[in-house]
Design brief:
481 residues; alpha+beta; Arc Repressor Mutant, subunit A; 5-stranded mixed sheet; two-stranded antiparallel sheet; 54% helix
Length: 481
């Protein structure tokens, strides 16, 4: 019986550790290269148990002097791609080994996607009625720069009824609003901070997330006024439990989910982006580099010695036991942090590697017609992770290619009869660019022309694709030329 109890205890501890690591992995995956570097610098300052490793060979991150991932990335793939008899040379992807003489990477200045553009891209990937699409467009148009909804659903319904001449009820707007709130980034289209936090917590899993959701839902006023004793009493939980839930669940939420995007197209023109990946063409081989500035890390030698001493000579006095608890807490926290960073690197590299494999032709040609239909679920299945993990790994991340710096979401699109929607949109854009502006094509004519090119697409889908690219209706295209 004692052995069974010990087994259950160890199993529970392992499950809890796995949950903590997965939660932390999700958090660090959301950060791009610059954000991750900023966090790491803060962690190095705040955590005395964490240090930069001076010697080479650490498994977390083997980098060259310009801060780019090299050998470790190749090691990650060795089991998959080491046998050249099994894999054609043109299908081999490996990290790019850099010399110390290489130049440091200069951030690219690119046009960054605005919040509205990013949301409308997601809206247009969904099969909606024209009425629901109009409602979604109005909802997105009424979000402020932080992603909060600025008008009531009643006011939005009235706007659509009178301005667009489409009879719309409040229930219609509420229904579409629920759909918009399922889009990325989490917490978008909330009416206030409480609702924003709840929307994010609803996407999380685990008992602590449910407890955090209850705290924000039922005791938000107490929480905002830091009446923690009252919350503990009402929920019958300990102060330690509340501290853990607040730190690990609530404080990791983003109170301004739209703030990481430029609020207008003009704001995005001067954004400096440091790509998270670099893909280079070398003959018939694609070389992938994880471009990051994460140094080699280790646990401070003083903490390693203390842990070893406690293992050999268990503490006896109350003071020494307390000291051991402090040391072990810092030691375990640091050990987990290093492990999570390694998991982050591996997840990012594996995800990008699968994207390259699926979109290989594009990286050689730069032609959007070579982009294959690809969804987040496709990559999740191939990497063997949940789609929410892949979503975090690809959001707000960029790759530097010979065709320019591209957001990773550029490579994702649904398909129609095996053809990427991005290819169809590009074909549509070319037709409109080359049309006679004195007699612009109607959506019916655009549909016929695309069908003749071999794209099996419906007329109502034409309007959806046209709007997603900011192409006005035929009457407006004529009036502005």
């Amino acid at each position: 019986m004692p052995n069974q109890t010990k087994l259950r205890t160890e199993l529970k501890q392992e499950q809890r550790l796995s949950t903590i690591l997965q939660r932390e992995l999700g958090r660090v995956l959301e950060k791009n290269a610059n954000e991750m570097q900023d966090e790491l610098e803060r962690e190095l300052l705040d955590n005395p148990a964490l240090e930069r490793k001076e010697n080479d060979g650490d498994e977390l991150n083997n980098t060259t002097e310009d801060g780019r991932r090299s050998e470790t990335s190749e090691q990650m793939q060795r089991n998959d791609y080491a046998d050249e008899d099994e894999v054609m040379p043109t299908q081999r992807y490996r990290a790019n080994n850099r010399s110390a003489d290489d130049n440091f990477y200069t951030p690219e200045i690119i046009n960054e996607t605005t919040l509205s553009e990013y949301l409308m891209e997601q809206v247009n990937e969904r099969e909606l009625t024209e009425h629901d699409r109009v409602i979604a467009t109005n909802i997105v148009g009424n979000l402020d720069s932080n992603g909060y909804l600025q008008r009531t659903t009643r006011a939005i319904a009235d706007d659509i009824t009178f301005n667009d001449n489409i009879e719309t009820e409040t229930d219609d707007v509420e229904r579409v609003l629920d759909m918009v709130r399922q889009l990325d980034p989490p917490g978008i289209a909330a009416r206030d901070l409480r609702e924003c936090l709840l929307l994010q917590l609803q996407r999380k899993e685990g008992d602590d997330a449910r407890l955090a959701e209850r705290i924000i839902d039922q005791y938000f006023t107490d929480f905002s006024k830091k009446r923690f004793t009252a919350i503990c009493s009402a929920l019958r939980i300990s102060k330690a439990t509340l501290d853990r839930v607040v730190k690990q669940e609530i404080q990791t939420l983003n109170p301004k989910p739209g703030s990481s995007y430029s609020s207008s197209p003009s704001e995005g023109h001067d954004s400096q982006i440091t790509p998270d990946f670099i893909v280079e063409v070398d003959g018939n081989i694609l070389r992938l580099t994880l471009n990051n500035n994460i140094p080699e890390l280790c646990i401070a030698a003083s903490y390693e010695r203390s842990v070893a001493e406690y293992a050999e000579h268990p503490p006896v006095s109350r003071e020494s036991k307390d000291n051991k608890q402090v040391i072990m807490k810092a030691y375990n926290r640091t050990q987990n942090y290093i492990k999570v960073l390694k998991m982050r690197q591996e997840t990012l590299f594996k995800s990008m590697d699968k994207i390259i494999q699926r979109q290989r032709e594009y990286f050689f040609s730069g032609d959007v017609a070579d982009l294959r239909p690809m969804t987040l679920q496709n990559i999740a299945d191939e990497v063997g992770m949940d789609v929410s993990v892949i979503s975090r790994a690809t959001t707000n991340k960029y790759v530097d290619t010979q065709w320019g710096v591209k957001p990773l979401r550029f490579f994702f699109s649904e398909g129609i009869d095996g053809v990427s929607t991005r290819e169809i949109k590009e074909a549509l854009k070319q037709i409109v660019d080359n049309e006679d502006k004195r007699h612009p094509y109607s959506d019916n004519q655009l549909c016929d022309l695309l069908n003749k090119q071999g794209y099996n697409i419906a007329r109502r889908t034409i309007g959806k694709y046209r709007e997603s690219q900011g192409i006005p209706k035929a009457s407006l295209r004529k009036s502005i030329h």
